[in-house]
Every structure is written in C-alpha cells, then in structure tokens.
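Two folds, back to back.
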Amino acid sequence: MRKILIVALALSASLGYGQQKEMDKYEQYRPILENGSKIQKDSLANELLKRAKTTKNESELEFANNFLYRLGHQDSADSLRSVIAKKFPKSVTARGVYIQDVFYKQEDAKAKEKSYTHLIKNWPVDKSASDNVDYDYVIASVAKSFADEGNKERALYYLDQMNERFWRAQGYIPVATKLLEQGDTVAAIPLIQKAVEDAEYYINLPKEQKDNKAGFAALGYPGYVSQLAEIYDAQGKQTEALQLIERAIALAPEQAARFSSSYFKGLEAADRKLEALQQLELIYRQGEFAHKDKMTELYTTLNGSVKGLAAYFSRLDQEVVKGIRDHIKEMETFKPAPAFELLNMSGEKVSLANLKGKVLVLDFWATWCQPCIRSFPGMQAAQEMYKDDEDVQFLFINTWERDKNYKDKVAAFIEKNKYPFEVLFDDQKDEETGEIMAGKYGVQGIPAKFIIDKEGNIRYFLTGSSPNVDYIKMEMKELIETAKKPHKG
C-alpha cells in the first residue's frame, strides 16, 4: 500500500504542480488510459519506455514512470523508477525509492530513526514544497515504533516534527491509542485534542478555501471526537464529553449519526433521557442492536410501563429494512458479469462459468485495506446465514496486493482469523485487455462487492462497507434474496 500512496502522490504532484507540458501530455494520453484497448495501452507504454531511454529530463522520466503505473505496467515502472533514482540521486523519485526499499524494511524504532536521519540528510525537508506528507508517513512510523516499545519521550519528540497539519492526526492517533493501552491517559489526551483541533480548523475554513486536504483532515473528525468523549466519560467528565459532542454535531451535522454512540451516554448522564433514547434509535436504524436492553429501559422509564414496547421495536425493525431497501436500490444494475477463472488458496481453478446457476457474492479486498478487514466479521456472519443454501456462493477476491509473498500473507491472515472464506487470487491478466479481474469489473476502490444472479448478470455493485455485523447480515440478505428473483427489467 505504501508504494501505491507514494505513486499516487507523485502523480498528483506531476499533474497538479508540474509544468504545463506534463499536463498536456496527460490530457493527450488520458483517452487511452481510460478507454484504450490492450494493444493501444501496450503501444503507449512502449513509446514511453523508448522516450525514457533517450531523455535526460528528470520530469519527463518521472511522468513516464507514473503513467506506466497507471497503464498497469508495474514491472516496467519499477525498473524505470530505479533508473531515475540512479540518474538523479537527489530527486523525489530517489527519495521515494529509499523510503520504500530501505526505511520501510526497518523493524525496530532505533533502526527506523537511523534511516530517517539518513533520509533528511540526503533529502532535506523543504517547507515550501507540496509533498512533505511523504516525510510525515515516515515520521509517524518512527513515532509509532517508539510508542510500541514504550519510549514515550521519543515518540512525542517525533510527532512534533510532522510537517502537514491536514495529515498529522494520522500520526497522533495511533500513538495516542498505544499510550492509552499502556495506561498513560495524561500523555494521550493532548494528542487526541490536537487531532480534534486540526480537524475543526479545516471544517471551519470558508467554503472557497476548502480543498482535498481539508476534506481529508475532516474525515476522521467523528472518530477523534468519539475517542476523546469516551475518555472524558471514563474520567467522570460527562459535562465535558457532552459539550464536545454537541459542538461536533453543530460543526458537522452531516456526520451526526457517527456521534450517536457517545452522544447518548452524555445525554443519559445529563438526565436527558428522551434525547438519549432518540440517539439509540438512530443507532438501531443503522442495524446495530447491541443497545436494545438500554432502549427498553429508557422506553419503560419514559412511558411508565412496557406497554407498546413490542410495537415500538416492530416499527423500528420495519424502518431498518426500509432503509436498507432504499439504500440498495441506488446500487441496482443489470449487465453480464465479466468472465473470470482464478486460483483459490489450494491452487484449484474457480470460474464464473462453473458457478452458473448460483447467486454469487464477490467481495474484492486486500490485506492492507482496513475497511475490508472491518467488514469481515459481518461478511462471515452473512456467509454463515447461507451455509446450507446450495444456491448461494461467497467468493473473496484478493486483489491489489503488492508484496511478492502476498499469497503466503493472505493465507496467514485467513488462518489467523479462522475465516471460512473461499479466497481467490486476482493476479491473472486478461489476454485481450491486460486487466486483472478488478479492472474488468470496474473496481476503483475496495472493499467492492458484486451480487451476481444465477444467469451470470451483475444485479448490485457496492463500494465501501459498514463494520456493523447486524447491518451487513440484513443488507446481504436483501441483496441475495432479490438477486434470486427474476429481473423485472
């Protein structure tokens, strides 16, 4: 994943901040990138490689390198990347090669610290540059390693070296979480508070000043607020927790549902029982039923008896199902599923053709994809729900792995977590398009799920996933049962 991030950032820098010449090239080549045939893509790749052999211009080489990645020619791009690093040892590419091939292979904090020292000595930080987040990835890694080893002072020292305000919470929060695990709440709280303050800074920017960085900084805001509120609750500071959450809801009302779990605790502590119950209702409607006993308690207190309780929950259950049906309706499609034939972890071939007559659930995932991993308990529960249904098959398509030993890594992950999944490796390129299965299916991000009916047609395409086990079970049931029925056209 680190390589993907580095390449993406380099391409962004090349296109966003580079010369107009590179921008013009990108626009010239983009039709081939997006809609070209394999022959056209291969021809363009060969042209880029041919030019790369003769040019002495660093920016042209970096452009060729980045575009080769986009065309799916990873091996050629990797080779060219090494050439650039040798020709231009002080270049951004050389720095990226060092970070990827040297720094990230260090296993302990001291070794990482030594590698980081070498990095900034040979590629000093330019405060005016647009790509200093590359350094922050490294600094955050050093800080986390020191925190893991119990060296709080060095961890905090490195966190103070971070460059990009929009990203630094990504360094603060893992260290803060480790400090909390070690029982050091005093050191953890300021880090989480800084993460909250940084997010609020970007949320409060005028609309015309908000960009992708601002959006990224605000993305983790609900999580930071909830983590800090939970600490305040544990310390008996319910008033502070409630004030924190209500300010957060006022700032980011579109994220209100993500605060509900912490919000109801503060409301209950403040004896605002009706509002507390309303927050639990929001959680319930998302398919999370863990608070049903608390809801029963609040309902009984507010109503003076359990009269009407069954009807109350029945109404909520109907709302949950309606919400899911409305949600999945937006994901409806109807088109033939591209054929595939992939190997499973036992080396056996599994193909779409051999599975015709079954409803298929395809789940594209990778070991580095945290949203994918967080959805797996729910997907396991959904698969268990259909274990006796011979007309339904779940397939977990492992894709976009970058480690050379990815098969061993995947097998170890599945075994460690005891997931009873049929895992297929998405590493077979189509002879005509040169695409792996994810590309043929139009996957742009993972997790991505496809529901295929018995006739081999894609009926639903989902991106992202809830970590909520109950919600995933209900959602999968609606998707699968609908896919079992003939398409209405």
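---
second:
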Amino acid sequence: MQVTVEGKSVSLVGNPPEIGTQLPKFKLWDKDDQKVKTANLLGTLTLISVVPDINTSVCTMQTRKFNQQADHFPGAHFITVSTNTIAEQAGWCAAQGVQNLDVLSDADESFGYAMELLIPDTGTLARSVWIVDANGQIVYRQIVPEEVDEPNYLDALNELEKLTSRVDDN
C-alpha cells in the first residue's frame, strides 16, 4: 500500500489489515517501559490513533483531539502509537498535559510490521485510526492518504459512538 508524504508517494511494508480481521500480535512499550502486547488490549473497545512523529504539529493536534474526546467515551480505551522513544513521548505528554489516553512507543517497529503500517524509508508509521472491539476484531480503519493531513475525527468518533451505544445496550 502507498500513502503520500507532502505529495511524494511512499510505500508501506505491506497492506494493513482490513475491517473484520483480528488485530495481529505485536508489542509496544508504555511510559513505565513495560511491554504492552496485543492481548493487553483485549477486553474493552479500543481506539488506536497512529501518528508518524508525536513531536510534529499534525501529530500533536491528532493526539490532543483524541485526548479531549476520551472523557466522552468512558467505555472505550484510547491509545496513541508512534515510533518515538518512551522518553520523547513522556516529555511530549508532560508538555501537552495529555492524561486521558495512553501513549505507547513502537520504537522497535513491532506494531508497524505487524499492522503493515511502517514506512521503511522514514522509520515512521502511516497516520491512521483504528477501532478494535473487546475480542480484538478490527471494526474500523482509517488510513490517511496524505501524512500531513489530519484524520477525519468526526467519522472515527461517530463510529465509536455507535459501538459504545451497542455495548451500553447489552
């Protein structure tokens, strides 16, 4: 699959998983340098916001937007994933006051390869938004075609709203 970065076409390491498939196995690292595996994300509805570099303006806007929205969805877990180091992410979170979501590091590119979102030329991930149900099935995906563009927040949040209301109805 290809996306563009400032209009220049770049290839991902493969084709990211489709809606209806299981979240692949990967590992990420949290702010305490603890391993977070795919299995740790099961059991609750999860929105995964993927950003290329937490220290850039569009990635900052994306992460702050989802951080602001997390309170409106108490039945969902919000995470942001980037290839930035734990130290870079911790500094960014402290400066931005991000506390409503988990920021996880894919510095070793396990998530990027498993989800086939890694851009090997830059060592970053393709900007995307994923929603995964409690069983680990991908129920929403949005891969942003141009890396410097923001995702369609409203589309992702509307889907999350539908999914959380279904969970609440059960």
